[in-house]
Protein 1
Amino acid sequence: MEYVDFSWVKEFPAAVTVCDVDGIILGMNDKSARTFAGDGGYGLIGSNLLDCHPSQSRNKLENLIASRRENTYTIEKNGDKKLIHQRPWFQDGEYAGFIEFSFEIPFEMRHVNNDGNND
């Protein structure tokens, strides 16, 4: 599989990491490389993201990749709250792996209901 062209997202202010169907990291943007600098940053490209996780997280990721389901949750780490969104991506209609988006978000967020019941 070819490496993904990341020119469109290089300086995007959220961490974006792309892996293939086996968990091999195909690309990451600057924010992702900074986030994972302690683990190798851009040097992680070509390695398996499953190797970067303890067994419990690794099992969850393996199941997620195999089932092709999306996964969304929030975390708090180093004083920041983040929204993590992982979802399958496709190339020419074929399942190609997963993309993880990691956004820093406020601890208190307004929720807007576009069905007419706004906060």
Protein 2
Amino acid sequence: MTETESVVMTRDEIFQAVRSIMEEALGVDEEEVTLEASLTSDLEAESIDFLDIVFRLEKSFSTPDHPFKIEQGELFPENLLENPEWVADTKFTEAGMTMLKERMPHVDFSGFENDREVDKVAELITVNSIVDFVERKLTA
């Protein structure tokens, strides 16, 4: 492999690695970790678990030639309430929705457009969105 080549993994290989990470980080059974499973609603992840998941993803997908680094706020939303242009009355504004979609293209926000409750955004992060995130990052 040359220095310019990136690690090539199939989507299923990425899913299997993410599944293992979720099992270890969250103490859940393999059959619970489906692509549709929400990290918070279905797998009962808490904010402290997100740090562990980020660490495990970085470790699992890094190679000596290609470190897999996840920047703060890149995978999971952070510090959203601090910007009044993004959030008003506990709901995302148009600017907030635009920001979320730009920062987090791996998350499906289509069913969230009508609700926009800040407290519910974490429920949108699924195993599939983690797989999408890793897949995009590996092919970038």
Protein 3
Amino acid sequence: MTAHNVLVIGSGGREHVLAWALSRSRHVKQVFVAPGNAGTAWPAQARITGLNPCAGSRNVPVDTGDFEALIAFARDNDVALTVVGPEAPLAAGVVDAFQAAGFSVFGPTKAAAQLEASKAFSKDFMRDHQIATAAYGVFTDFEDACEFAMSFDGPVVVKADGLAAGKGVLICDSVEEAHTALQTVMVDRAFGAAGDRVVIEERMSGREISVLAFADGQSAVPLVVARDHKRALDGDKGLNTGGMGAFAPTTDVPQSLIDDILRTVIQPVIDGMAARGTPYVGVLYAGLMLTEAGPKVLEFNCRLGDPEAQVILPLLESDLFEVLQACLDGRLAETELRWQSRTCATVVLASPGYPEQYPKGLPISGLDQLDSMPDVIAFHAGTAAHDNQIVTAGGRVLAITAVGDDLDSALDLAYQGVAQVHFDGMHYRRDIGRTHESSQS
């Protein structure tokens, strides 16, 4: 059997767990991560023990937007498979560039990634393919947008059309708040060009869930369902964040509901994209609201969620390299995904001030203490190496992740891991897995 070199594009927690999972594949001999972080480089190990990686991983100092340099690296280093983590290079066409250069790359093309890159495209696509979503309007004119917002008899949501690092969604309880939100997005340009167009939609009520699936352009296979915790503070209070923790699987989402969502949401997306001549290959992430009228789509993401990836991939028993290759070969329907019958939980350690302004360069201590905890691992999100010291380099710094026989044991282990790690002003939620909040990232 031939073992291969693989390249993961990105620098966050999602990319760390992708690199980690690929390193444990029998088909992988070396992982590269571009540009990576302080956690995405490690030496090769002879065999898999606990949650340790196996194949070695090395960081590559190439920016995610420098497609020419990424392709040159893949060519010079005999890379057999490239996996794209974040949304920005997907939206910019990194998959198209790699395909044009003759490389095998996992992720949707620029045309397919419009499902996330343009909320207006996504809403129109759902309308055209009878996928349930909130009533909406799309606007480029401020006055027209304000008039439409006033016509709603109830609260609305204002969304910048383009990518805004997860911050371009403004929830409004009144007409006055909607007017302020539109001013912020369209006039003050708080999100730059992402606000050239806005989507205004009715604000739905119900419980939120996220369903993620692998897709090969023809069919889709769901991943285990994870629950994310968005608010910064305990009790689901404070500002929205990129995610402060998660666990998987959930116990309150029946298989019948997943089957219904696959039939009414996921597969219609795959079929609709194929009909457009832009087949969807990659991970499709549907954020949904369970309304009284049934599941309705809030939005789509075109990649794994973060921190959902940190609790989903550690439970995957199937070889990730084989799964991704099956997607690229159009053989997903023949591939059975196998999952551990255990639970995974992660607790995000954040910088002081996050999700608002925060310092960088704070020394992190205690990570070596996790080496003696076989069912605990730290996935790095915002870290860097400086003078032989790991320091903070982002808002969400680390995701301390543990696998246990049930949710209580996984959470206990994760928090035991949290207790070993320290940096100045570190904050985290102490109630992950203890609330019913769920959301999309």
Protein 4
Amino acid sequence: MRRLAALMIGVALAASACGGSGAGTQRTMTGNLTIANLQPFSGADADFGSLMYAGCYAAIQLINRAGGALGHSLDCVKVDTRSEAESGELARSMLASTPNLVAVLGPGSNEAPSTVPLINRAHVPMFTDAGQAVFDRSTYAYLWRMTPSDDAAGYAMAIWAHKEGYRRGAAVFGIDASSQANVPSLLKGFRQLGGSIVINQSLEMGKPSYAAEVEAVVQANPDVIFTEVDSKTAATFFSELAKRHAQIPIIGTNVTLEPGWLDAVSRSIGPAIFAKSFVAVQPYAAPQGRAWEIFNDALLGSAAEVPNPGQWSGDPYAMSDFDAVTIVALAMVAAGTVDPAVFNPYVKRLTSGRATTVVVHSYAEGLIALRTGHAIQYVGPSGPMAFDQWQNVPVGFSLATYDLSGQTTLIDSITAGAVGALSSH
């Protein structure tokens, strides 16, 4: 269904592997520029790579149609981490072997600890979806995070559960780093709001049965289940739970909104039951407005490379990667160079609104404004991006439900301020 683009092309670029431009020089490149998608395209988390590549590919279609960045066309390249945490060697190979590497989409939570330092040392901007709290106050100059951290998601889940009147929670999360990153703030936030976590389970992924774990949940008698596990594990667990007990309401993370997860779990317990019991939190990005229409038109026009692109139309992570690639291209134009070590600071400059800036919603609009001497603020489908001093964007959350047609619907939202207020206690 998906092809892994070749990485071992040509001779290693010493500048890329050793940390960017030399003193007083700018790196020059000829030919197409590469955006590497350092994501899982196989294994338990394969949906992550697919949705982020969709955002990347949609963006480069518009950029290349407008003449590229400083005359260079852009390519999106898949670098498959295979859903494995130890991806350091893969990142080294990517940095040493990828011609004209100007940015990385990723790494994700599982891969970030072993790969972020390497990419930062190579002076290549990376737009991570890693949720660990350790990156909330990052000192990595080339690390940018446009989506909220997992600890923020944990607080958002607790806020929604409390609002809905739930007071006895079961935490059922996978043992992987990405899933577990949500748990500490969920437990803390729910307790601060007056709730009680009656059981905290870490599920080993891919077991043929979870009878013992299901029995423990039933005995704990929760009125809500908080969860993030891969689709196969979730389908098995919730199927066995449905046979043992009336369905307990489920509050999931954004992972549970991926099409593969929704399909697997709805089939396992029945779509009607699932639709009545399920809600999930995801980064807030409303699928509406001019910027989203530009994104969605480009996405739907990518069917030759992106299977079933419409499934990502409302996905905030696909939107954020679309925005990241667009910002990188505009940053190169604004800086007058394709050297990542030089254009990297422009990421924040081009997203910070000031009285004299012109708001643009696409690469083409930004290109015209820059060429006519205007300072710009790019506002894409993700909305305004006010990077803080740690290069994170504070983002709120939306609540999504599943319906019998297989679609998700946004029903409510939680502001970044509400999450911040709970986390500060």
